[in-house]
Amino acid sequence: MIDRRTAPYAALLLRAAVGALFILHIYRKFFITGIDAWWDNMAHSGYPKIVMIYALVAEFSAAVALPLGLWTRWVSLLAFPLIAGAAHFWLVRKGFWFSDAGGEFTLLWAAALLVLALLGDGAYALRWRRRAALAG
Question: What does the alpha-carbon distance between residue 68 and residue 64 come to, in Å, rounded to a whole number?
């Protein structure tokens, strides 16, 4: 049975945790390894430019929108293929176990995105008013 009193706070906690991971990934990409090094590495691995642009858009959208609770369902679904692809990448190369740099963590991250897509915004989410609501 879902506890309706605490479920919105569970969504908030998951939103904050997953959003923080995306913030850290964007930070690392731009300020630690450098966006040029990341881009060159992805290009060297054979990824087309559209995939690299999608990765940046999905990560940035999730880093901004998830902690704020904006469009949580849609942003989670936008980021899910990115993380599912990362899980596949590591599962194929390193196996399952996190201790072997495998796909265990990225699978958990993908599951968290799906849970967020199902749960929705949760507590303390910014609400984006629709134009119809503003007109009435």
Answer: 7
